[in-house]
Design brief:
The complex is a heterodimer of chains A (422) and B (339). Chain A has 422 residues and is mostly helical. Chain A has a domain at 56-164 and 287-422: MetI-like fold. Helices cover 62% and strands 8% of the residues of chain A. Chain A has helices at residues 16-19, 21-54, 84-117, 122-136, 140-154, 211-241, 248-266, 288-314, 318-326, 331-361, 373-385, 388-417, and strands at 177-179, 182-185, 187-190, 196-199, 207-210, 268-271, 274-276, 279-281, 284-287. In chain A, helix 3 packs across helix 8, helix 6 packs antiparallel against helix 7 and helix 8 (288-314) crosses helix 10 (331-361). Chain B has 339 residues and is of the alpha/beta class. Chain B folds into 2 domains: 25-122 and 224-329, D-Maltodextrin-Binding Protein, domain 2 (3-Layer(aba) Sandwich), CATH 3.40.190; 125-220, Periplasmic binding protein-like II (D-Maltodextrin-Binding Protein, domain 2). Chain B is built from 14 helices and 14 strands. In chain B, strand 2 and strand 3 form a beta hairpin. In chain B, helix 3 (57-70) packs across helix 9 (233-252) and helix 3 (57-70) runs antiparallel to helix 13 (292-300). Chain B is globular, with a radius of gyration of 22 Å. Classes of the chains: A mainly alpha (422), B alpha/beta (339).
């Protein structure tokens, strides 16, 4: 009797790539990958060849040319002689402003509506249902255009404020003007201000940092640090003696006095908008395009967030609220202390995609003439320079970067609140 | 070796795709339709009428070209384009030509790779304000809110004008003429600026046109004309000489009423004979029929007839010929000879 101790040595043959199940899947994957790469190469090659035939090879040199156009909402100083790069930067900032404002408002409205939809009050729950269904089932572009049309058609023009028999007047003790060109708010001014620090000289990326703002932030930061130190000390005393010293007057004083003194030193006062010439002058001008876009995007996205919040709350078992109720907690405390913190784990991941949606939807800004990055880089710059491919590729890159940053931050937060398993 | 063959094949494929847009006339003949880019609706220049049929000064150029190439002025597919989308539409081949009050500038011609085949309207940028604003000059517009169509030369002219006069303004960029009109009428902007012809056309559609005035300043030169892509000169020639045929017809007194009669037999004026194909072979040189210009002129008349019918003084738009009179009448409209 013979026993086989070793498996026969198999030499690798080329045909095994197809017939041997150990290698077949790998072969298929390699072939598919090569096919995909060939397709991509063909597309890129085709594009480059055709661009060369048109006499428009890829070239980003236009970025250093003067833009030649003006932008109404400027967060940095800008004039029409600045470069296309700076115009794009201003557009990017405008995009970020409306995205950040929109995300904050959408979250607040969304959470409120989501909680209220579960309310035992029949009327409130139904109204919230109507709101959610109305907003999320109509395209956001229509909401944006509608918000703009309402602002333009229903609010008074600045000339209605003029003259002895004016048909419109300013609100809140003559400090706020609501017109169809936007809302004018009082602005913070410093009569003994410290001026600005100029960063990056005369380049396209230059910006100013207000010394006043930095001083206020530093003092506020120091105050908060001192308050926390005092609270820690109170904890230690409480642990040692069982009696907690009162800290509220210290907290309140530290928060108000140093900042107040600094503001007085800097000569803080409000600048109120005043009707002069064709428009209101002075104050901060929130343009109608920003308000319309912000409002429409927030209300639209809030409808989705409300559903996510409702789903998150419903995912927490009823026993949790009942247990909290048995401990004697009131209804709103149960929601705030027990249900919502647990629901956050379910809520955050889909919330991220809604933030991303809002940011991307902000590219509809041109419908109301808001000069975001799509309006500057992907609009006027593209049109004046004729560099469609370059501009669109850059635009995609910018939105990709913004979206990935939002995802990154939100994922970090998600990791912080998720259930820690030991 | 194998790799270079594949790459070579790819390059050939790419070149073939690039060469595909070289013979525009063949594409149009095969399609049986001319794709013509026009504005999204500017009364008098390009707008659909009550029956949905496009009509206007720019539209007439498209129809004339269709008559020349296909023998049928109605064989036109009108593609509405905004100031922003028009160049992409033309460069990508979505439209064969653009007849959309587009200003001929150096960079559009040279850098954007378009061929402007002539000028069919000499225009300039103007300002329209409500009468009750009580101003008489654009230099009084310091601090005003200005509505402007985005993606146009007017945007750059406006920035230059206010900058050189050292006065400030607030631009409100807007996509289409209709939106600009809405904002202007609601008082969301004090001023509307675009080409003076466009302002006149827009004002004509207002309920009370008399409440709005055009300021005297014309702050730019805006020679408006049809354009085609670089790279197909034969096609460019057809469009260019179609426009020139319309202009020459007016100069020589050939109208839609008498063109059939004049074309029936050679007359005394050799240039009319050459234009209408009763003498010489100018049509064949373009690759068209010898009587191509007869179809062009009988479509909607000569240049003067088109002007008077769509935007002339008898229409609500009421534009005077001004710079757009024939050179023989002291204007700038001038066609090279048909010879």
């Amino acid at each position: 009797m013979t026993t086989l101790t070793d498996a026969p040595k198999v030499t690798f043959r080329l045909s095994m790539l197809i017939y041997d199940t150990r290698y077949r899947s790998m072969t298929i994957q390699v072939v598919a990958l090569m096919g995909f790469m060939l397709l991509a190469a063909w597309l890129i090659n085709n594009t480059l060849t055709n661009l060369a035939t048109l006499g428009k090879p890829i070239d980003f040199g236009f970025f250093t040319d003067p833009a030649g156009y003006d932008i109404n909402q400027r967060l940095l100083d800008y004039n029409s002689r600045d470069t296309h790069l700076r115009a794009s930067l201003l557009g990017l900032l405008n995009t970020l402003v409306v995205a950040v404002l929109g995300c904050i408002t959408a979250t607040i409205i969304g959470v409120l509506v989501g909680v209220l939809r579960l309310s035992n009050n029949w009327l409130i729950a139904r109204i919230m249902t109507v709101y959610v269904e109305m907003f999320r089932n109509v395209p956001v572009l229509l909401w944006i255009v509608l918000a703009m049309a309402i602002m333009i058609e229903s609010l008074p023009a600045p000339k209605a404020f003029r003259g002895d028999n004016a048909t419109a007047s300013m609100d809140l003790f003559d400090s706020v003007a609501v017109t169809n060109r936007g809302v004018y708010l009082p602005e913070a001014l410093f009569s003994r201000g410290l001026g600005n620090v100029h960063v990056f000289g005369d380049s396209s990326l230059r910006f100013d940092v207000s010394r006043d703002l930095m001083a206020i932030l530093i003092v506020l930061g120091a105050s908060i640090f001192a308050i926390r130190w005092n609270n820690r000390r109170a904890h230690e005393i409480q642990d040692a003696t069982g009696e907690r010293p009162t800290t509220w007057h210290f907290t309140f004083g530290l928060l108000v006095v140093p900042t107040g003194v600094l503001l007085a030193l800097l000569g803080f006062h409000f600048g109120y908008p005043e009707l002069g010439g064709y428009n209101f002058k002075g104050g901060t001008h929130l343009r109608n395009s920003l308000i319309a876009l912000w409002l429409a995007l927030s209300l639209y996205t809030a409808a989705f967030i409300a559903e996510i919040v409702r789903g998150g709350i419903l995912a927490i078992s009823q026993g949790q609220s009942e247990a909290a109720g048995a401990l004697g907690l009131r209804q709103n405390r149960i929601m705030g202390l027990v249900v919502l913190p647990q629901a956050l784990r379910v809520i955050i991941p889909p919330l991220i995609s809604n933030y991303l949606n809002l940011t991307k939807n902000s590219s509809l800004a041109i419908a109301v003439g808001y000069m975001d990055i799509t309006g500057t880089l992907g609009g006027i710059t593209m049109n004046q320079t004729g560099r469609e491919l370059e501009c669109i590729l850059l635009l995609m890159l910018v939105y990709l970067t913004i979206s990935l940053s939002i995802s990154g931050v939100m994922n970090w937060y998600n990791n912080k609140v998720k259930l820690v398993e030991r | 070796m194998k790799k270079s063959v594949i790459l070579g094949a790819l390059t050939v494929a790419g070149l073939a795709a690039g060469a595909a847009n070289a013979a525009t006339v063949d594409d149009i003949t095969a399609r049986g339709k001319l794709n013509c880019g026009v504005s999204t609706g500017l009364v008098g220049f390009a707008a659909p009428d009550a029956a949905g049929i496009w009509d206007g000064f720019d539209v007439a150029v498209c129809r004339a070209v269709a008559a020349a190439v296909l023998g049928d002025p109605m064989a036109v597919e009108f593609v509405p384009t905004t100031g922003k989308t028009r160049f992409t539409a033309l460069a990508s081949g979505e439209v064969d030509m653009l007849a959309r009050n587009t200003t001929w500038t150096f960079s559009r011609d040279v850098d954007l790779k378009f061929t402007f085949i002539g000028v069919n309207y000499y225009d300039g940028q103007g300002f329209m304000v409500p009468k009750d604003l009580g101003i008489s000059s654009a230099t009084e517009l310091d601090g005003a809110t200005v509505c402007i169509q985005t993606g146009t030369t007017t945007e750059l002219n406006l920035a230059d004008f206010f900058r050189s006069n050292n006065i400030s303004y607030e631009p409100v960029p807007i996509e289409t003429n209709a939106e600009a009109q809405q904002q202007y009428l609601a008082g969301a902007c004090d001023v509307y600026t675009t080409d003076a012809s466009g302002l006149a056309a827009t004002r004509a559609t207002f309920e009370a046109p008399g409440d709005h005035v055009l300021l005297p300043e014309i702050i730019s030169k805006e020679p408006l004309g049809p354009l085609v892509r670089h790279g197909d000169d034969a096609w460019g020639d057809i469009v260019r000489w179609t426009l020139n045929a319309l202009i020459t017809a007016e100069e020589l007194g050939v109208t839609s009423a008498n063109v059939a009669e004049m074309a029936s037999a050679a007359g005394n004026n050799p240039e009319i004979n050459r234009l209408l194909g009763t003498e010489g072979n100018l049509g064949e040189m373009l690759g068209l029929n010898s009587d191509w210009a007869v179809g062009v002129i009988s479509t909607s008349g000569n240049y003067g007839e088109i002007f008077e019918k769509n935007i002339g003084e008898a229409t609500p738009i009421g534009l005077a010929r001004g710079l757009n009179a024939q050179w023989t009448d002291g204007g700038l409209i001038y066609s090279p000879p048909f010879r």
